[in-house]
Structures are given as C-alpha cells and as structure tokens.
Structure prediction request, 252 residues.
Amino acid sequence: MRIALFGATGGTGLQLIDQAKRAGDDIVAVVRSAEAGQRITATRHSAAAKASSLTADGRNSPTEGRDTTEDRNTTAEGPGSAGVGGGVEVFEADPTDAAAIEAAVRGADVVVSALGHRPGVDDPICAPGAQAIIMAMRSTGVRRLVVVTASGHVTDPNDDLATRAIKPILRRFLRASFEDFAATETLVRASGLDWTIMRPPRLTNGGRKGHRTEIDRTVRRGMTLSRADLADAILTAARNPATIHHAIAVAY
Prediction:
C-alpha cells in the first residue's frame, strides 16, 4: 500500500512510518521543511542502530522485531521530495497548499492526515490542511482518506458521567484545537471521498498493548491511548473498507 502521510514528524506520524514500513508499505511523508524531514531520517537511523545492537549482542535473532525485506527508495514526482530508504520518501511542501501537495498525493492508495496543533499555537492547521488535501485528492483522482481528529469535542450517549463532566472543561482550555477538529470533520464529511475519521482521546507515549474501538460513538471510559496504538488503528482502518464514511473512536 502506498500512503501519503501528513503530520509525518509528530509522534503519531513517526509511529505510522515505522509500522507501515514493517508492514511493507511505501510512505510519502509530507513535511514543511528539510529540517523537519531530518527528524524522520534521524528517527529511522536511531531505530536501525538499536536493532543492530540488539542483534550483535545475541539478545535478538537477525529477523526478530524488524523488517527483513530489502530497503527500497521510491521515486519522487516533483522537486520537493527526497528518498530516505526503506520505502520512505520525504516530500517538502506546505500541507495547506493544494497545488504544492498534488505530487505527493498522486498515486497514493490512501492519504492519512495526522496534522495537529503545535504547543502554544492556536492557529488552525487541521481544517486548512484537510481542505488542501481534499482538493489535491480530487485533482489526482485519489479517493481513500483517513483523518485524525479527537474524541474530546464530541459528546454522545456512550459517554459516562465522569466524561460528560470533564469534556466541557477540556473545551474551555482546548477551544482552538476542538474548533479546528470540528471544522475538519465537517469538511471531510462533505468531501465526497471515501473517508474515515479517527477519534482518539488523550495521547501518550509507550508501546502497543491493544485497544478498543467504537463506530460512530465514543469509547466508554476511554481516556487515553498511546500513539503507537493509534498508528496501528489508523493502518487497520485504512485497509478496511467497512470503515468508509464512519468515525472510529479508539481508546483503552
């Protein structure tokens, strides 16, 4: 599967790259700058060095816990791209510029947006990014779209009393992010594409340990989720046509 990934240098994006590569997928990682792209390269080199050191001292077999397929570079369609090996291509472009990202989107089996707010920045990014991505997908004929928002801005009957009490407080402190997420979902639902919306709760670091999902409603008492498990859920949804035109809540 060929994945065009936006928000590639965030915690979820880096997890997606790692897990997609291990599954044998090709990734076009869209980044704002060459400096941001270096984070992907550095992270991949660090993971490779760790795997190599574990193999060298005998604690792992040569094939345990890592991809054994031959690394491969993909070819860019446009001046903003550079291969970093292992089926990962870094593409430098403004994610809110539809014309600039067309080359990254073209030929993708699925486009994933894991765009999110930077700490201390309230300017919307998810909705403007979604609008540009939708325009680029329409121009290039790509149909499958998976977009990450959050569960905090959504209230439904599956919320327990504690969650219903907490969400208004979260909306006060995270107003800009939640408004951006709501606007994003409106754009995605009206896109006419084969979309899936992913709604995680508060994200944490840590490995995969399994998770719960709900379709078109929140996960009851689902308060946290690791970025690794979110990445796993995104890739699972991207491959499952039954998730098209649904919002998937995912949490512990």
In short: The mean pLDDT is 84. The chain has one domain: 2-251.
